[in-house]
């Protein structure tokens, strides 16, 4: 009877020791049926392709990394030639009729003005011939220097002025691309790059065995 009691005590103590050690040497089983070894495998290692981010940045396949494509409305030109200046961006100056000059308003185109030394008399105060105008009573106009013309104030003498219809651009801007000739790529929003889920880890950031 006493030996049987000892046997029961030994079995009970053994059971307590096994429970405290977490098992009998095999993997401990969790409530969901998974072992600690399986948890470790699921945790896995950091993905080397995405460095654990779960996403990778790649060149946009739609635009090839350029960030845009040629506008299909204007074929990349940014617009059409201005009808008024025919694409030149400037037109003939209307003030000088394309000559680049105007009649001098001081001498009215004569190139001369009344001699200021003798006031047009041709003589000085002593009655001698005026040395400034040699007795002619006239001298070269101080505004046009005797040419009779002055530079056109509107075109600065170039005979042309900026086209007021296209503001000197030479074209009517394309409404679709606003004159840029290019449209932003939609998939990458003009950046040339797209963010994709990592193909190696499926976006988890870690590589697992299962």
Widest sheet: strand ordering: 1-14
Q: How does the helix and strand content classify structurally? A: alpha+beta
Low-confidence stretches: 21-32, 34-41
> How would you characterize the largest beta sheet?
2 strands, antiparallel
Number of helices: 2
Rg, rounded, reads 48 Å
The residue fraction in helices comes out at: 10-25%
Kindly state the number of beta strands.
14
Task: Compute the average pLDDT.
Answer: 80
Query: What is the CA–CA distance across the termini?
Result: 55 Å
Percent in strands: 15-25%
Using the alpha-carbon principal axes, give the shape.
Answer: rod-shaped
Element order, helices and strands?
A: HHEEEEEEEEEEEEEE
Q: What descriptive keywords fit this protein?
A:
13% helix, two-stranded antiparallel ribbon, 210 residues, rod-shaped, two-stranded antiparallel sheet
